[in-house]
Amino acid sequence: MAEYIIKNGFVFDPVLGINGDKTDVAIKDGKFVETTQLANPKTIDATGMTVMAGAVDIHAHVAGPKVNTGRNFRPEDKLFNCTPRRGVERMQGGFSVPTTFKTGYDYARMGYTTVMEAAMPPLYARHTHEEIRDTPIIDQAAFPVFGNNWFVLEYLKNNEIENTASYIAWLLRATKGYAVKVVNPGGTEAWGWGLNCENIHDPVPFFDITPAQIVKGLIEANEYLGLPHSMHVHANNLGNPGNYTTTLDTFKLSEGIKPRGGWGRDQVMHHTHVQFHSYGGDNWGNFESKSPEIMDYVNSHDNITIDIGQVTLDETTTMTADGPFEHHLTELNHLKWANTDVELETGSGVVPYVYSPTIKVCAIQWAIGLELGLLAKDPMRVFITTDHPNAGPFIRYPRVIKWLMSQQSREEMLNGFKHSEKVIDATHLMGIDRELSLYEIAQMTRAGTAKALGLGHMYGSLKPGLEADVAVYDFNPEQEHAPDDIEKAFGNARHLFKTGMQIINEGEIVSNGNKRTLWVNARVNENPQVMRDVKEKFLRYYTVTQNNYEVAGHHYVPNPYVIEVDATQ
Amino acid sequence: MTKTVTDVVCPFCGTLCDDLEVVVSDDGKQLLEVYNACAIGAEKFLHSQAEDRLTRPRLQQEDGSWKDVTYDEAIEYTAQMLASSTKPLMYGWSSTNCEAQGVGSEIGEITGAVMDNTATVCHGTSLIAVQDIGIPHCTLGEVKNRADRVVFWGCNPAHAHPRHMSRYSIFPRGFFTGKGHKGRKVIVIDPRKTDTANVADVHLQIEQGRDYELLDALRVAFKGLPLPDVVAGIPKEQIYEAAEVLKSGRFVIIFFGMGVTQSLGKNHNIDEAIAVTRDLNEYTKAAIMPMRGHYNVTGSGAVWGWQFGFPFAVDLSRGFARYNPGETTSNDLLRRGEVDSVFVLGSDPGAHFPFSSVKKISELPSVCIDPHQTPTTAVCKLHVPVAFVGVEIGGCAYRMDNVPIETRKVVEAPEGMMTDEEFLEKVLVRIKEIKGE
Amino acid sequence: MKKLAIKVNLITGRSIQQGVSMEGGKEKPAYTAACGIIELDPAEFKRLGTYRNTNVRVTSEYGSVIVKAVEATQGPHPGVAYIPMGPWANMVINPNTYSTGMPTFKGTPVEVEIAKNGQVLDSLDLVRKACRGEVV
């Protein structure tokens, strides 16, 4: 493979502690190496530019059945943005729910090289993997959802952690999944009857278990196995005024539990899109930000990480395994509603949504996300996301970075809202003068996310030995710049390497790369009871046979990267 | 000696039964018996063994006679036809696997084709309605485990999806439905007294083509508001009663078929059926599901969805994907003479399109990829027989509830026969050469 | 003498025989037997003044086809006639899509008249001959 040296750029690498120093980056055989190891490298001149490791997205909905429902039921999302086949690029289209090809290219253009699909319904795992296969360039993994799964509900009702762990290991292998995802624990099962679980003590109909038991049990099972990533939760009561207490209650379930497995992560709970969970007030009239209360907790508890779920004030497509929430949303905005309940496992809903800057609540939501990022004491534990496409499309990450880095750009927004004064009153953003540094941005988008995913040994840094994923941005931190220059630079990587292959050269996509699908193969001791339970559920309640359930075959995962976990001890 | 292959997936209808057992000869070359399948599915497996099966491509001569050609010649013919067309129609894609569909998409991109699948004459109007109003949906296991109210509207699974009622909808006992059939109330709405209607608790023999009115009347009845004495041929007392049956259920499922999608009103009928389902979610839990026909028409819509963003009628001729049913749909394109060649794979428009469209196909350069002889092959210039997907080659297929299942290969195809995917791959390579890519 | 014709509302759709015979081969007689038919109520036979299993000509604004008239298996359905989906039905159904892409397969007004000496063609022949203009 070709050798490259990226010379003279301003390097930001929190893992190596490099903060804008001019350092050369060497690539050989797909990995970063010491510059002395290169024989005859091709030189990339990064003079006056910013160099960072390829970014890692910890939470986005980019592949699978609900994403495709969003695409197929929103032809209007493709208006004026379809592009032709050109060079190595396939046809592309879509704004909030882009086609798989556009997804891969757009992430690459922003310097992202690894993306986690945040919710995979196990029964639809094949579909998710087919889309991942057709998404070029980026490495991906998918998180199967566990929080409403009948096996999990039955085991955890009796606090059977070992059986839960065995089942998790079985399902990760069957679905080629990566981590334990929990969405509205218990609430989506309740939605099978049109009901919901609104707080962590609200029992699940029939199953006689509470969301708190589900969350705590899954954290314990996750650490029993010692998986690379922690349990990844979207708590109950999303999107409702006053829900921050449910969020704090959920956070507290992690107390006293320590990470296991030796993957380098410090957290046992990742709480996703916390913006949607940081609301005060008790109706839409007195709706307000509770980000200080939330961040006080996060800042003082090392075993939690979060991502922000920033609202970008766009027309977008919401989609989540939180079925009852999407029904609630369609009742609010009266737009079209798709829902799919999945036997024994989960559910989901999809509703278009317009986050308008002229609507007070939307503007407050926008402010809350930024507050979470700006109140973070440790940027290695607080990550940038838009919960794509729920709070906005991922292509807005450069804009979110601009807002976090520029008080001026934030205040222009705050002063420009239709209900400016009310929004300022209901939030804390106006008083915050912090401007994040490029070093902190690198923590929130690379070093921190890679570490939290248990992938610090592959991604997130330019350290020799790691995968050679690196982005060069046309941004000179030593020069005067307008806020918009930040957005422009982070949206248009000048150069991009993925596993040592040049993907973008001088702003042009020149390769479809060699994308990989990561999955976790957790080995556990034989557990005849769980295998009996699996067999029985397939015989009696599933509508596919057990032998037709497992995702196997080259056409689903043509280029796997398997992470082995030994939980037999 | 023989061997039995279990967990075989039936490549006939959207029910996609995956519990068939197939007995094959020891050398894996002959398929001997089929168990658990319906009459249609069994016939599909057994017909693959027909002695008179065509195994090589053939070209139709001026006088209507056929001349055998090699696969290489067929690949060249197909590649040249597509590469020299300005707007080819690439139709079908419903009786093949998702892998072949994916290769077809790339051919369509390079040649500027219009990609359309059998939804265009089946549930295309449902797809349009979903774009209008969304769809509260569920997997078939949810029906099996929870549903206590089952509605079949304009569909006749006893004939079209023969094992649907026993596997999913009427008879099975599930987790919360231990009483099976006894615990469910079944309502059939159909202008005919169908065999499905015969097993229902209620049959509303609707006046043909009046589905919109009756659906609307149900929405009125849910709210307890006044109705005319008779709507769509149904007395109002029966409508109020049906509304009450639905509202009082714990989980309502509405299955619908061609009776609503193909009658006048078309997508608007489905809009209203989905609105009925939305309304029911105010009172209880309700879902609605189209009874998809071909075993992988759903997969075709899924593949195009993630690759182009549209489930059918995808026009790539301008260099990017466009979608406008009524303009970019097969029958409209054919009748208006807007395509200059026709490529068919995994469907039989010769049998299932209106004759005016079939005649247009016969007048154009045309290629048909199909294991069978069909009315389409009868009017196409080149017929390429291929291996049966789901019998002689596996691959992914999507059930009517969008659940993807890997079909199985149970026997070898006759020697030297290509699969859809192999044939398309070679055509793609050749077209890239011709186009200089 | 004026030929007797009855007017009915034509719908099409699947039948199990249609499905089985289609998979068995559309060139085979079983497919013609399953789909080259029109299902009529007994009352319609009375109106038409003929016996069951007589060949009839079905004509609409859009075309014409000869099929065998049989008694409705899933009836009665007054005023409605049924031809299983296939090339015979598609000779006469309303092909207009009204900007939906979907031809109007169900609900075509047709006239049915006795055609004792008419021949029901097999599916391949029917389509081929019709394309060449050899059948009316």
TrEMBL record, chain A:
Residues 42-485 form the Amidohydrolase domain. It comes from the Archaea. Pfam families: Amidohydro_3. InterPro entries: Amidohydro_3, Formylmethanofuran_DH_asu, Metal-dep_hydrolase_composite, Metal_Hydrolase, Metallo-dep_Hydrolases_sf. PANTHER family: COLLAPSIN RESPONSE MEDIATOR PROTEIN, HYDRANTOINASE/DIHYDROPYRIMIDINASE FAMILY MEMBER. This is Formylmethanofuran dehydrogenase subunit A. It comes from Methanoculleus frigidifontis.
From TrEMBL, chain B:
Gene3D superfamilies: 3.30.200.210, 3.40.50.740, Dimethylsulfoxide Reductase, domain 2. The keyword Ribonucleoprotein does not apply. It holds the Pfam family Molybdopterin. Residues 53-349 form the Molybdopterin oxidoreductase domain. Keywords: Oxidoreductase. InterPro entries: Formylmethanofuran_DH_bsu, Mopterin_OxRdtase, Prok_molybdopt-oxidoreductase. This is Formylmethanofuran dehydrogenase subunit B. It comes from Methanoculleus frigidifontis.
